[in-house]
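quick q for whoever's on today - can somebody do inverse folding on this one?? i tried earlier but teh output was garbage lol. tokens:
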């Protein structure tokens, strides 16, 4: 377990250094030509990735971007922890740690970085907004760097993955984080650069909180319990239900919104009735 912890610690410190380096570079006057070039590339990527996919796609990505899409995942996570019999301390610290991860990722991105850099969202930038596709006329707040949605999604991913330690669940969480992040580009309210930097910030925060709470957990345990805890952390917390919850949520959002928008179900209904 010590080796795994050292790898996680090193990953966190590397990511933290990258975040600090990006912050410093963005404040250097000498880096302005590079920043302007990166801004132009970011805008070109935005025009490529943002498009009008029709009513069904609009509904789908709007639903993925909604906070309500996280409800099934949250309920499943609480159910997993509620039936976790090995230690009451683990579910308690787990919920607190996850809450702190989301709060830190959200507040650092929204209350500090956005007002600090004051980079206009693409939806409020006159150079590009007329060429973008928006859903239901929603354009978000004034500033968009960095994306809070991406920070929160990747923060949750980084916090949960080391505890679950199951590849299938980690892959499912990663895909979900990318879907939530891309939804902001599709809706026209964030540049790809906002998403990348927001995801980097959130992942760093989630990993850092995970390290702190895992070490805190072992500090609070008695010596006789530590061996059992080490074996438990090697296997991870049961996460198959979380994988199912992510899959079902994604499929429900997909089929519900496409059925609401498409005429197909209604055109085949007479044929289904005839067969019955």
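ok took a stab at it. sequence:
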């Amino acid at each position: 377990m010590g080796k795994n912890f050292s790898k996680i610690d090193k990953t966190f410190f590397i990511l933290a250094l990258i975040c600090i380096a990006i912050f410093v570079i963005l404040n250097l006057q000498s880096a302005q030509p590079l920043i302007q070039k990166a801004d132009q590339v970011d805008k070109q990527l935005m025009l490529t990735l943002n498009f009008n996919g029709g009513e069904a796609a609009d509904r789908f990505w709007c639903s993925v971007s909604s906070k309500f899409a996280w409800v099934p995942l949250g309920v499943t996570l609480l159910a997993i922890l509620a039936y976790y019999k090995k230690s009451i301390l683990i579910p308690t610290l787990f919920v607190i740690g996850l809450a702190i991860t989301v709060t830190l990722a959200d507040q650092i991105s929204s209350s500090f970085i956005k007002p600090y850099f004051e980079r206009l969202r693409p939806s409020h930038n006159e150079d590009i907004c007329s060429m973008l596709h928006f859903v239901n006329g929603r354009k978000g707040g004034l500033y968009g760097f960095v994306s809070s949605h991406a920070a929160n999604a990747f923060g949750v991913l980084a916090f949960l993955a080391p505890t679950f330690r199951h590849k299938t669940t980690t892959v499912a969480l990663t895909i979900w984080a990318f879907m939530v992040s891309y939804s902001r580009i599709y809706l026209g309210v964030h540049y790809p650069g906002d998403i990348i930097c927001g995801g980097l910030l959130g992942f760093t925060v989630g990993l850092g909180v995970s390290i702190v709470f895992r070490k805190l957990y072992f500090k609070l345990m008695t010596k006789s319990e530590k061996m059992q805890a080490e074996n438990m952390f090697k296997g991870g917390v049961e996460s198959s239900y979380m994988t199912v919850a992510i899959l079902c949520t994604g499929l429900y959002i997909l089929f519900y919104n496409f059925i609401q928008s498409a005429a197909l179900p209604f055109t085949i209904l007479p044929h289904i009735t005839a067969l019955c």
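fwiw The chain has eleven helices and no strands. also The first helix runs from residue 2 to 26. so keep that in mind when u check it
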